[in-house]
Design goal:
The chain has 12 helices and 17 strands. It has about 450 residues and is an alpha/beta fold. It has 2 domains: about 240 residues, Response regulator (Rossmann fold), CATH 3.40.50.2300; about 170 residues, 3-Layer(aba) Sandwich (Rossmann fold). A 7-stranded mixed sheet has the order 9-8-10-11-12-16-17, sandwiched between helices. The protein has a 5-stranded parallel sheet with strand order 4-1-5-6-7, sandwiched between helices. The chain has a 3-stranded antiparallel sheet with strand order 13-14-15. α1 crosses α10 and α10 crosses α11.
């Protein structure tokens, strides 16, 4: 398959998958359309393409078992179309309009909290219009599934009944990291650095809060933000980090902003630790090399070296689907997201105009997602209906050489993997929320 063209996954509804339906199945029904709105070009194209592979694999799994069966007994496949937002809010809003014109019923996005915030507003306005015009367009409302945009505001002040987040937000991730940091007494000073937009600001804000609450003895050696996706040379930042004498760096950087930062710190000879949200993928382990052994930590919903047979089987299945080292980027939460969506679609009501072929009762689907759950690879995710925030276990891993104790799998063929050093239950990872859903419709 050519994964570079929009509309590629219409192929998933082709004759090659039709045998998955029972012999008694009715004539093929229109598919349920999902729209991926991501940066597929520009500085963060690698992250968008990596997400795309995850969603492809998840949808393939659902369709291979026959898709979903609605309340009238009809079976539907899921199809995915991709829309390039170039990492820009304006482009994302244009892509959203195009997806609506193409009949999308489910919006998928995550790589940028700024984009996610704009999409929440756009989805709210669109659905409000459709509700006001319900008799003529009963099936045109959409739900927004967010797999990575982790600014806490999205399920607090900006919460929406149509938006569901499947990743742990920044405060949850930082709390998990501090389950480790609070025990590392040799860390006496830290340097805080992040991307200058809503998510990066939220990460540093929570880092300051956690430091005050759990390690007030740690000195803050530096605290700064840098432009998102526009810094080509991180050497000046790396030099300041080294000169500060910080024992560790705390950062929420992702994509090239993380890879270039780590490379620059290695180049100037910085030997401190990195406590990261995303240090376990997209070139970062290879960039830091042996200098990161025992020093680079990452918090995640799941890591390949989670020590269970179910987890190992899941990762091997992904590697069989995407064997190239550069494609080694899998997130269990994205798979659970599509599984939860499929569970919610199974048996979902139609809105009384089934002859239209795709008239899912979107209000009913939204309610089913809000109380939904899914289990895969031994891990369960459940959605909290009060704010649309998924609840799931988290893990913290430390970078080690492939083959060392606890490191059965490496990252991107780099020879480095992440040994799990902390496992946090869903109950331990859960935090309170400030969502007032009634105020958002």
């Amino acid at each position: 398959m050519d994964f570079s063209k929009r509309g590629l996954l219409k192929a998933l509804a082709s004759a090659s998958l039709l045998p998955a339906f029972s012999a008694s199945a009715q004539a093929p029904q229109p598919s349920i359309k999902l729209a991926l709105i991501e940066a597929l070009s520009g500085a963060f194209a690698n992250t968008g393409e990596a997400v795309f592979r995850n969603i492809v694999w998840a949808i393939e799994r659902v369709n291979a078992r026959g898709g979903v069966r609605l309340s009238d007994g009809s079976q539907r496949l899921l199809t995915l179309e991709r829309y390039d937002n170039k990492g820009l809010v304006e482009e994302a809003l244009s892509a959203f309009k195009a997806a609506l014109d193409d009949g999308a019923q489910v919006i998928l996005q995550g790589n940028s909290s700024a984009v996610a915030a704009a999409l929440i507003d756009a989805v709210n306005k669109h659905n409000a219009r459709q509700q006001a015009d319900n008799e003529r367009s009963p099936a045109k409302r959409v739900v927004f599934l967010n797999y990575s945009a982790v600014d806490p505001i999205l399920t607090n002040e900006k919460c929406s009944p149509w938006h569901f987040r499947f990743d742990a937000h920044a405060d949850m991730r930082m709390s998990a990291l501090f389950e480790l940091i609070k025990t590392e007494r040799d860390v006496k000073s830290v340097y805080l650095i992040g991307q200058d937009y809503s998510f990066g600001q939220a990460v540093l804000r929570e880092a300051r809060k956690q430091l005050a609450a759990k390690r007030p003895d740690i000195r803050t050696a530096g605290d700064e933000l840098h432009p998102l996706g526009r810094v080509k040379d991180f050497l000046p930042y790396a030099s300041k980090i080294k000169a500060s004498g910080a024992d560790a760096v705390i950062t929420g950087n992702w994509g090239n902003d993380l890879t270039l930062l780590v490379k620059a710190c290695k180049e100037v000879g910085y030997e401190g630790r990195f406590y990261t949200f995303y240090g376990n993928a997209l070139g970062t382990p290879a960039a830091i090399g042996d200098a990161g052994l025992g020093k680079v930590f990452a918090v995640a919903d799941w890591l390949p070296n989670v020590p269970t047979p179910e987890s190992q089987a899941f990762y091997r299945a992904f590697k069989a689907r995407y064997p190239k080292p550069q494609d080694d980027y899998v997130h269990l939460r994205m798979q659970l997201m599509i599984e939860l969506l499929a569970n919610a679609l199974n048996g979902v009501a139609l809105n009384g105009v089934a002859a239209s072929g795709a008239a899912i009762d979107m209000q009913a689907l939204r309610e089913r997602i809000s109380r939904g759950s899914a289990t895969l690879a031994g891990q369960t995710l459940r959605m909290r209906p009060e704010d649309g925030q998924a609840q799931q276990p988290l893990v913290v891993g430390v970078m080690e050489k492939l083959g060392s104790p606890g490191v059965q799998f490496d990252v991107e063929g780099s020879g480095y993997g992440f040994r799990v050093v902390r496992q946090i239950t869903a109950a331990q990872a859960e935090v309170s929320h400030g969502c007032v859903m009634a105020a958002r419709g």
